[in-house]
From TrEMBL:
Keyword Membrane: yes
Protein name, UniProt field: Nucleoporin POM33
Biological source species: Huiozyma naganishii (strain ATCC MYA-139 / BCRC 22969 / CBS 8797 / KCTC 17520 / NBRC 10181 / NCYC 3082 / Yp74L-3) (Yeast)
Family: Belongs to the PER33/POM33 family.
Subcellular location field: Membrane
Source organism, top-level taxon: Eukaryota
Keywords, comma-separated and alphabetical: Membrane, Transmembrane, Transmembrane helix
InterPro entries referenced in this protein's UniProt entry, alphabetically: PER33/POM33_regulator (IPR051645), TMEM33/Pom33 (IPR005344)
Lineage: Eukaryota, Fungi, Dikarya, Ascomycota, Saccharomycotina
Amino acid sequence: MDTTQSGKPTESKATPAPAGAAGARFVKLAKSLQFAWFVGHAIVLFSSVLYMFTFKEWLYRLVYLGVVHSFGIIIYQQHFLKTVPRDTASLLTDENILYFALATVWLFTPRFTISLIPYIIFSLFHFARYLQNNFLPVVFGLTRENSGIIQNLTNFTQNFNERCMYWVAGVELTTEVILLLKALVWCRRSWILFPLYSLFIKIRFENSKYSRAAFAQWRVRLDGLISHPSVPPVAKKAYDFTKTKLIQLSSYQLTKPTLSPQAAEAKQN
């Protein structure tokens, strides 16, 4: 997910506030659906900070309630307020639906703290952009020209968004590996979570440049590690077999036309 392109309401950017009481402007702003979306991201951010200090389960659940709330508003806007019909294939490529469905799974399954990281990062950028484009200009009349706060928020979102999205993809791939290991040792509900999350990773690989970059980076690193002379031949053979099967699997597309195995390998390279 690129937070500059999706995961936010389709309302226009706010103009600087006219003269008047800040409280009245805030009340007017708070009545919008976009503000409700912003509140969801605020819940995610502040609950996750408290959770990292206390690890209380109710805070973990509250984070995901905030996620479901904010992503649910986007889905409501895109698929219920608009009259343009969407086919099933397009629903599979809708990042908001994908992350909403995944958050619902995490909400009702045993705690898995690493799963919070992508949502925290998404909420951080959406929260910052709403302050920058809506809250501060509307309520306080601030602009980039007269406010260092807005300038700093703008610099942050412009300079770190792309980098963090690549990092999110790496975290998601790490999560897949951890779920695989948990499934191999028969952890609670692991054989339910692992296939569901694998489906999520497959769809992300097909549609996200960040996910494909994470796979490519891992492949280069693993190729280097496995090629070391100290690695037993049986391990190298197992690695080559697994890599080949994954390349073949990538040729079967869920959301796009099917690629040949040769084309899939070329795409990964």
